[in-house]
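It would be a great kindness if you could assist me with a short task in structural biology. The matter concerns a single protein, recorded as an amino acid sequence and a row of backbone structure tokens. Could you please explain, in whatever detail you think fit, how the structure tokens follow from the sequence? Thank you for your consideration; the sequence and its tokens are set out here:
___
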Amino acid sequence: MSTNENGLAQHTADFRKKASDLGHNVEDLGSMTKVLAGDAVDKLQKNAGKYYDQGMKKAGSLEKGLEKTISENPLVSLLVAAGVGMVAGAFFNRR
């Protein structure tokens, strides 16, 4: 073998080694990305569940407050509902 052939063989071997290393690095990066994405999804699910529970508690307290207001002032509540109905009816009739 000549010197050029030995150099070419060495460069080819180096290239294959670096390409193999690059492939392993890409696989490792993919694995890390998968783990990070899984962790992010878990965190989002926990936060979403917490916010859902808080929203349901707030809606329940608003419902109780509205029921209390209506039961304490039934006539005013009826007049307000009628007024809102009239405004909504007038709005939709004009369209």
Observations:
- The chain has one domain: 3-93.
